[in-house]
């Protein structure tokens, strides 16, 4: 029981999203493994049956639009990551470095800590509906991205 109370108290004092303390010694890859790979996998393939989109041939296009960059800051894994905005920028840039290029050409600019802070402050009430707007915009540009089974 004492352990349970200690854990509850510790959880109560965890940093709030966007105000998380940096984790010294953690690389962007380490944070990717700890915060993203559980859903997206180590290869960024996601799980379409689980509703998790793949990164290859998609994430660079998504990050290449204003709306897409804001969307990326509001996906559940980012919102609940308990990483600082600097660490989120680093993880996003790791993802873009690995999966955000076509024929070695980057499709989007790197994220900065200031941009992450600004975009996380934008209210996105329904991330699924917001993603549909991103997909519609990319479709108009002639770009098809990874499947996303949510209605």
From TrEMBL:
InterPro entries membership = Cyt_c-like_dom (IPR009056), Cyt_c-like_dom_sf (IPR036909)
Source species: Celeribacter halophilus
Q: Where is the signal peptide?
A: 1-20
- Classification via SUPFAM superfamilies: Cytochrome c
* Keywords (A to Z) from UniProt: Heme, Iron, Metal-binding, Signal
Give the molecular function GO annotations.
Answer: electron transfer activity; heme binding; metal ion binding
- Superkingdom, taxonomy of origin: Bacteria
Q: What is this protein called?
A: Cytochrome c domain-containing protein
Q: Does the keyword Nucleotide-binding apply?
A: no
Could you tell me which residue ranges the Cytochrome c domain spans? 20-99
């Amino acid at each position: 029981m004492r352990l349970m109370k200690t854990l509850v108290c510790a959880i109560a004092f965890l940093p709030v999203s966007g105000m998380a303390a940096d984790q010294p010694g953690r690389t962007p890859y380490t944070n990717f493994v700890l915060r993203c790979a559980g859903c997206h996998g180590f290869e960024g393939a996601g799980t379409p049956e689980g509703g998790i989109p793949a990164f290859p041939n998609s994430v660079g296009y998504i990050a290449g639009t204003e709306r897409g960059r804001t969307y990326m800051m509001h996906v559940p894994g980012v919102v609940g990551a308990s990483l600082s905005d600097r660490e989120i920028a680093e993880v996003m840039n790791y993802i873009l470095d690995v999966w955000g290029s076509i024929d070695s050409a980057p499709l989007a600019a790197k994220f900065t800590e200031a941009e992450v802070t600004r975009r996380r402050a934008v209210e996105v009430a329904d991330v699924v509906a917001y993603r549909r707007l991103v997909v519609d915009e990319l479709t108009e540009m002639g770009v098809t991205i990874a499947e996303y089974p949510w209605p």
